[in-house]
Automatic annotation (TrEMBL):
GO molecular function: heme binding; iron ion binding; oxygen binding; oxygen carrier activity; superoxide dismutase activity
Coiled coil: none
The protein's enzyme class: oxidoreductase
Descriptive protein name: superoxide dismutase
Domain called Globin: residue spans: 2-152
InterPro entries: Globin, Globin-like_sf, Globin/Proto, Globin_lamprey/hagfish
Domain of life: Eukaryota
Family to which this protein belongs: Belongs to the globin family.
UniProt EC number: 1.15.1.1
Keyword annotations from UniProtKB, A to Z: Heme, Iron, Metal-binding, Oxygen transport, Transport
Length: 152
């Protein structure tokens, strides 16, 4: 599925507003994932702060951890790169494949957990920009998720 120029423009505008606060928003998305889906904490055994508090900490406390903030920024930077390729499916796929392969083979991340991240991202977009923005960006997350699953 290719994005029309208008779809890409709308999605890019939504993303630009979320990405403008990359560190905070990335940390919020990850902290919600960790809090609502505790099994995802197991992927981050090297995050010593996170490993010591996941059951007792609030999502806000988890989002404040330097490890979570740094990785949230890394996740959002990767998404930023993907958003820049929305109008060129071949380029988008070429960007997704190494990311998906690394998560599948090296990091052993269940592909379904990408869906969890995208759900939390869409929830955040809805909170900050409203339902229309959420709906517009859902096309992006659906496309990326399908391409990630295909590459797994």
């Amino acid at each position: 599925m290719a994005f029309s120029a208008e779809d890409a423009k709308t999605a890019s505008a939504v993303w630009e507003k979320i990405y403008a606060d990359v560190e905070d928003n990335g940390a919020i998305v990850l902290s919600r994932m960790f809090k609502e889906n505790p099994h995802t904490v197991s992927y981050f055994k090297n995050f010593t702060q996170l490993q010591s508090i996941p059951e007792t900490a609030s999502a806000e406390e988890i989002a404040a951890l330097a490890e979570v903030r740094g990785h949230g920024k890394k996740v959002f930077s990767a998404l930023n790169d993907l958003v820049s390729h929305l109008t060129n499916v071949d380029s988008l796929k070429a960007t997704i494949v190494p990311l998906a392969k690394k998560h599948a083979t090296e990091l052993k991340v269940d592909v379904k957990d990408f869906g969890i991240i995208f759900e939390n991202l869409l929830h955040l977009i809805g909170q900050k920009q409203g339902g229309d923005a959420k709906e517009a960006f859902e096309k992006v997350t659906n496309l990326i998720y399908e391409e990630i699953k295909a590459a797994y």
